[in-house]
Design a protein that fits this description.
4-stranded antiparallel beta sheet; single chain; minor pseudopilin epsh fold; alpha+beta; 34% helix; 8 strands
């Protein structure tokens, strides 16, 4: 009986010794292959990422302006949208977060946290170009109309071939709309019918 038990133990040991891990060289080769495949595949993901970011910017921008207009009407006061500098005044640097705030005295400045409606981070990819004539901000009046001037915003992708720009037209009525590419050249047209290029 004793030899039989020993035989079982030997067979158990043989099964255990049949399993082996990767050697250091095998592991390094596997990592190198994964790295090469990732390097080859990464550029093909760029258009997908840019298009996804474009959709996100479109949704966020339309929602931001809709909220600004709604808050101006509901609050019966001016609402301002702009990036702020260190003094909490409107600045021209749209690479910073955009702040939406109540501005009843039209100072284009945040004097206290109770004025702030929302802070919107800038896009994680691409760049915003804002044209509000001579101003660096957008405002809505209590009737929902744009206060004092018109303007537009263009989002430009990091990789021009990966996604077309997104161009937003801001008319006097205050209802922001996305410009479309009506001629199929890959670029949306501005209010004058000209292609928007970055």
């Amino acid at each position: 009986m004793a030899p039989r038990t020993g035989a079982r133990g030997d067979s158990g040991m043989k099964q255990g010794s049949g399993q082996r891990g990767l050697t250091l060289i095998e592991l390094m080769v596997a990592i190198a292959i994964i790295g090469i495949v990732a390097a080859i595949a990464a550029p093909s993901f760029s258009p997908l990422i840019e298009k996804s970011q474009r959709r996100a910017v479109i949704n966020d921008t339309l929602a931001m302006f809709a909220m600004a207009r709604q808050e101006a009407v509901l609050g019966s006061r001016i609402v301002t949208l702009c990036p702020l500098n260190s003094d909490n005044r409107c600045s021209r640097d749209w690479s910073k977060p955009a702040t939406l705030f109540y501005d009843p005295k039209n100072l284009r400045k945040v004097n206290g946290p109770e004025q702030i409606i929302r802070v919107v981070p800038p896009p994680s990819r691409g760049k915003l170009k804002v044209r509000s004539f001579s101003r660096s901000y957008f405002q809505y009046r209590a009737d929902g109309m744009v206060y004092s001037d018109l303007g537009n915003i263009t989002w430009c992708p990091d990789v021009q071939q990966a996604a077309k720009p997104a161009h937003f037209l801001i008319p006097k009525s205050g209802k922001v709309r996305l410009a479309h590419d009506s001629d199929g050249d890959g670029y949306p047209e501005d209010s004058g019918g000209q292609p928007v290029r970055c």
